[in-house]
Fold these 2 entries.
Entry 1:
Amino acid sequence: MKKVFMILACGVVVLVCVALIVGYSTSSPAQHLQGQPHIEQIATVDYVVDGDTINLQGGEKVRLVGVDAPETSPSEGSKAREFIENFCPPGVVIGLDVDDLNQIDRYGRTIAVVYAKIEGFWVNLNAELLRRGYAKIMFIPPSEFNPYKWFA
Ligand SMILES: [Ca+2]
Ligand SMILES: [Ca+2]
């Protein structure tokens, strides 16, 4: 009887350990998969400033991390801006994954990956800008995000 109890006790300990490990790995920010949406903050768009900057309702400004869209000009700059405006019109709700290693830039803007809900899925707009050639990679370590890995 004592032996059975010991076996049961060991089983419980093992189960608790497994639960802890699984719980840790799914909640650890470092563990989230590249390309897997990781949304830390929900926000509402006020207006799009340019292809890589969005103003939020409440006054917060967001700079899309890892990308540089050309400044708004009639030529290529407008493509990035049009793309962002298309998915982030005023009043729409977006998801943010703030750069844990560099949260605010020198202009006071929140540095983040912006997710827009497209056909029911959260889509990484930063990566989309690059994929479509509307913006260039701008990787400034230290950063939680390596834009080169978005396409690995
Ligand atoms: Ca720019
Ligand atoms: Ca983050």
Note: Helices lie at 2-27, 77-87, 125-131.
Entry 2:
Amino acid sequence: MKVTEKQLKARVTELNLGILKETTFGIKVDRGNKGYICSLVYRDQAPPELLLEEGSASEASACIEAVAATHRIFRQSMMGGVEKPEFLTDELFVKKGGERCPRTKCGSRDIIAGWVEKESDGLVQTHRCGKCGLEYTIRYKMEGYDISLHAESSDK
Ligand SMILES: [Zn+2]
């Protein structure tokens, strides 16, 4: 498939406004006398970095796609770190019913619970994950009590 200059420029614009938008650089493609020139243009004052000189349209296209692919991989690994913190937030932990290990990579239900203990601001219960060995304490708030009807009737 033949790539036209128009297609190259459109692709560059798409990337610069898309996945490269939050980066410190953009891609630039120019058609020189002897062929295509591809460069990385930094948004700060850093000088542009020449990636390809006197290339054919398909070489220019490959060059642009390589930058896009590299960035995509880089971003995924970065986002992986951001999206998945090592431990669950309180909110997520509670949402999951507190039944799973709060280490996100583990999430095991194989939990060994300790005694419920009283602390100044509530109740705490130490837990230990049977899979990854993480030790953590769940904090509880006491809300009141209910009489167990079953227990009451068995007394009589
Ligand atoms: Zn665990």
Note: Residues 88 and 94 are 9 Å apart (CA to CA).
